[in-house]
């Protein structure tokens, strides 16, 4: 080999080593960057040069499409499970248990105790007023729980609006990145950083629903939901959602009072196995339209049960059909057709309030003409027994079997506690599964020990090429001295 050939080979080696050193340094600097794809310089024999040497064939970005797909699906599942677990935890807190002072169960216990206390001394105005106060507190706990449920639905409504905004922004950014990558590849430019950003946007988008990402030969990607709905194939679609400022118990997507998702001319129900199901977006819809509605329906059914137990046909024989009983629908007599939202309107009859001058009606009946025997306790005892009497509920929301009012309350509390445990366990499992895939991705990512080893190898190679150049320089100097 001539001296010129040796010098050319050594220079090409130095050039490749310098570029490889930059790549290794970039890998080490981004070792903790989860969206960074490890780079590796691929060199090849320079067959186009008359002197030989090496050239940089490419800089490869390491990624595993299959593992990325599995990790993104796990992200969607974990996001949905976390939302369901959060709702279950909040729902349990709204209803509470007997150990929670402000819970419906605790207020029911207080009301029952007040009735028993008053029945032992019905002439005591203080005890009768306490009955009124505890009954009012029980009704208030229903209203508070119902308001809390609607707050959760309104929160889900806001989360849907925010999610749609993020999804649209992400899809537009992916369209921009696709265009940039395709154009840059056509010009032979580096697109590695844009590919990193594109994967980061895809990871963010994957929290909302499972994705199918298909790489095109041009360098662009097409994106579809897990159910096959096209989101990006050249042009990005845009989702539309009409958020309502408030949500009432009677409002649902089924009756058109709440919005679904629209893509173009198509209306889509993201929840319950829809085209956008499986992630956070569907979970918010399921919270708004299924989980919270189901809880409200149960609460309304229990509210109806207590209204009817203490209304016409119950212990108070002074009541006729159409009269308001102990508990009312916002001060009016309850009508069966108005069960939806009843828990939020449940109120104590004003003549039985603890501040009413006619508090004696607890003893003699709501429509009694005058107070008679101050020692009469039959009605108070009968009212107390109504809480534990087994009766078949009239509400279709409750199980069609004889149960006491106490059973309904404690059963709801137990069901919510069970659902919270199940949802929390499901969320923990989904999170562990996601962590497993993320660990697998990390194991295929940047290993600083390996990168430092490559840096040492590059240093040795650089020194060898530099030594060749020095030797050639020495030989040329000797030749020039002749």
From TrEMBL:
Coiled coil spans: none
Flagellar basal-body/hook protein C-terminal domain location: 445-482
GO molecular function: structural molecule activity
Domain Flagellar hook-associated protein FlgK helical: 94-310
InterPro entries: Flg_bb/hook_C_dom, FlgK, FlgK_helical
Keyword terms: Bacterial flagellum, Cell projection, Cilium, Flagellum, Secreted
A GO CC annotation given for this chain: extracellular region
GO terms, biological process: bacterial-type flagellum assembly
Predominant localisation class: other
Protein name: Flagellar hook-associated protein 1
């Amino acid at each position: 080999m001539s001296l010129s050939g040796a010098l050319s080979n050594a220079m090409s080696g130095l050039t490749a080593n310098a570029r490889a050193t930059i790549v290794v340094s970039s890998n080490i600097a981004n070792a903790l960057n989860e969206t960074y794809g490890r780079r590796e310089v691929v060199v090849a024999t320079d067959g186009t040069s008359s002197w030989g040497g090496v050239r940089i064939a490419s800089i490869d970005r390491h990624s595993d499409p299959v593992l990325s797909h599995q990790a993104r699906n796990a992200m969607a599942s974990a996001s949905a499970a976390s939302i369901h677990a959060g709702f279950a935890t909040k729902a349990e807190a709204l209803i509470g248990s007997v150990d929670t002072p402000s819970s419906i169960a605790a207020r029911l216990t207080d009301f029952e105790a007040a009735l028993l206390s008053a029945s032992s001394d019905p002439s005591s105005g203080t005890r009768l007023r306490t009955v009124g106060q505890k009954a009012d507190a029980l009704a208030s706990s229903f209203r508070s729980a119902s308001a809390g449920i609607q707050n959760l639905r309104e929160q889900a409504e806001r989360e849907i609006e925010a999610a749609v905004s993020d999804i649209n922004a992400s899809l537009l950014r992916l369209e921009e990145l696709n265009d940039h990558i395709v154009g840059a590849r056509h010009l032979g430019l580096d697109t590695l950083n844009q590919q990193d950003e594109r994967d980061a946007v895809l990871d963010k988008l994957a929290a909302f629903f499972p994705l199918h990402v298909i790489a095109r030969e041009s360098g662009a990607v097409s994106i579809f939901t897990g159910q096959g709905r096209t989101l990006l194939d050249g042009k990005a679609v845009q989702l539309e959602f009409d958020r309502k400022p408030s949500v009432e118990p009677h409002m649902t997507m089924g009756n058109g009072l709440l919005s679904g998702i629209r893509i173009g001319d198509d209306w889509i129900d993201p929840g319950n196995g829809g085209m956008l199901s499986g992630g956070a977006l569907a979970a918010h819809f399921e919270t708004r339209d299924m989980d919270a509605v189901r809880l409200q329906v149960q609460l309304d059914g229990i509210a109806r049960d207590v209204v009817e137990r203490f209304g016409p046909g119950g212990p108070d024989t002074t009541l006729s059909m159409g009269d308001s009983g102990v508990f009312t629908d916002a001060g009016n007599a309850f009508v069966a057709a108005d069960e939806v939202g009843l828990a939020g309107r449940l109120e104590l009859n004003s003549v039985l309030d603890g501040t009413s001058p006619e508090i004696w009606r607890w003893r003699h009946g709501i429509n009694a003409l005058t107070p008679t025997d101050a020692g009469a306790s039959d009605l108070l005892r009968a009212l107390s027994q109504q809480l534990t009497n087994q009766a078949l509920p009239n509400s279709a929301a409750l199980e069609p079997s004889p149960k006491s009012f106490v059973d309904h309350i404690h059963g709801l509390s137990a069901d919510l506690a069970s659902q919270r445990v199940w949802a929390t366990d499901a969320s923990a499992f989904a999170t562990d599964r996601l962590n497993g895939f993320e660990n697998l991705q990390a194991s295929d990512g940047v290993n600083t020990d390996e990168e430092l080893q490559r840096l040492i190898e590059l240093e040795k190679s650089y020194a060898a090429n530099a030594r060749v150049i020095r030797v050639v320089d020495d030989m040329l100097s000797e030749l020039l001295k002749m």
